[in-house]
Amino acid sequence: MFWETVAAVILIVGTLPLWLLVALAWGFLSGAWFFLVAGLSIVTEGTISEIWGVPVVAVVEAFSSAWSVPVEIWAWGKFEHPWWAAIIGLFCIGAANSNDR
How far apart are CA 18 and CA 96, in angstroms? Predict the structure, then answer.
């Protein structure tokens, strides 16, 4: 169990810039989609007092979706494929270090 955790940490740290961008994009798209669908639903079927909840719930949905990206990466790296997680993480760390020189 210890080495699987180490592999997952290496993957998370090594791919930090990639999954951070993916998480931000996924959270934005998910929140925008919820805002659009819920906003249209409220406008066509709801009352004006229900409109104020749409932006708040859209922001919560965006954060929830963005947080799901590192959670899924962690689960994949620790429980499903720890060897691949370690290899990919070390490769990304090595690639980042070679760009610094």
Answer: 12
pTM of full prediction above 0.70: yes
Return all residues near 48 (Cβ < 8 A) that are at least 6 apart.
none
DSSP letter for each residue of 67-80: HHHHHHHHHIIIII
Distance, in Å, from the CA atom of 76 to the CA atom of 4, rounded to the nearest integer, reads 10
Whether the CB-CB separation of 15 and 62 falls below 8 Å is answered with no
Across the chain, which has 101 residues, the per-10-residue mean pLDDT values are 90 90 92 89 74 84 89 90 92 82 57
Distance in angstroms (rounded) separating the CA atoms of residues 88 and 84: 6
CA distance 89 to 5: 13
